[in-house]
Amino acid sequence: MIDDFLNGDLTRVEAAVRAAAAAEIMPRYRQLAADEIVEKNGPHDLVTVADRRAEEHLTDSLARLLPGSVVVGEEAVHADPAVYEALSGDAPVWIVDPVDGTRQFVRGEPGFCTLVALAHRGEVLASWTYAPALDEMAVAVRGRGATLDGTPIRSGSPEPGTVLHVAMSHPDYTTDEQKRALRGLRTEGFAALRPCGSAGLEYLAVARGEVDALVYDWEYAWDHAAGLLLVAEAGGAHLTLSGGPFRIAGGNAMPFTAARDRATADRILTALREGA
To answer: Do 100 and 136 have their domain in common?
Structure first.
């Protein structure tokens, strides 16, 4: 069933993502009322009516595209954490972040996106990263490469010996152990660090070769599944602190990195281990 779907017309998924954004997100872009914005877990974790409506739209349309599949969406998991367990089940799973970069969306900035990934038994098989305000659509299919607006993209490699450009989690949201590991990136001359924006768009920047690596310390699948496949299919790599690849169902050693190539991922991992 899943192979037949992947070998079929995947533009239907792209159309579903675009339709959800057109119906539920963009009409509210720079038009949100105060009562349409809610803090979930503090001022840095926002949800809007656009997040909820877009996820409902995608839950309906994606499930119809692939009968027997289930949807794990950020807002559904917030309402019922047991929904997340589907990532470890046997059914194909759509992993959905309806508005990744909600803070940017709330501020009226264009740096947000909709993330959709299709996974089966822990393996991400295809992903869609759509930035509606920028009108950019990145698609990756396992073993078939990555494209941006239909054009193949490759991450390439940093110039040897250059300072790495790295986007990372904010240290305020890390454990003491993770803070020690992250200190390894602050060795003089090793990396130019900045806080991350929308995770989906940061992964796209790595896949395009605009950012050398990402370092994150949380593992919600809706933030990472689409981007990790996109980076991998563009020629990049990802590693957790244990040296293994990131697992979407969880239980990863943090922090982890996604980088333009395996050599860069290894450099980041070495620095994290030295910090720890």
So the answer is: yes
Hey, what amino acid is at 108? G
- Across 70-99, average pLDDT: 96
Examine the domain organization and report whether 32 and 59 are in the same domain: yes
Amino acid at 13: V
Give the HSE-up count for residue 72: Cα atoms under 13 Å, Cβ half-sphere: 27
Percent of the chain past pLDDT 70, that is, above it, reads 96
Q: Is residue 215 part of a domain?
A: yes
Distance CA 53, CA 43 (A): 21
20/141 same-domain check: yes
pLDDT in tens, 197-216: 999 999 999 999 999 999 99
- Residue 49 scores a pLDDT above 60: yes
User: CA of 151: how far to CAs of 140, 206, 208, 256, in Å?
Assistant: 11, 16, 11, 28
Structure tokens at 39: 């803090």
Q: Cis bond leading into 255, ω under 30°?
A: yes
Domain enclosing residue 117, as ranges: 2-152
Q: With the C-alpha atoms ordered 26, 28, 31, 32, is the resulting torsion angle positive or negative?
A: negative
Query: What integer best gives the mean pLDDT of the chain?
Result: 93
Q: What is the pLDDT of residue 29?
A: 95
**Over 174-222, what HEC string results?**
CCHHHHHHHHHHHCCCCEEEEECCCHHHHHHHHHCCCCCEEEECCCCHH
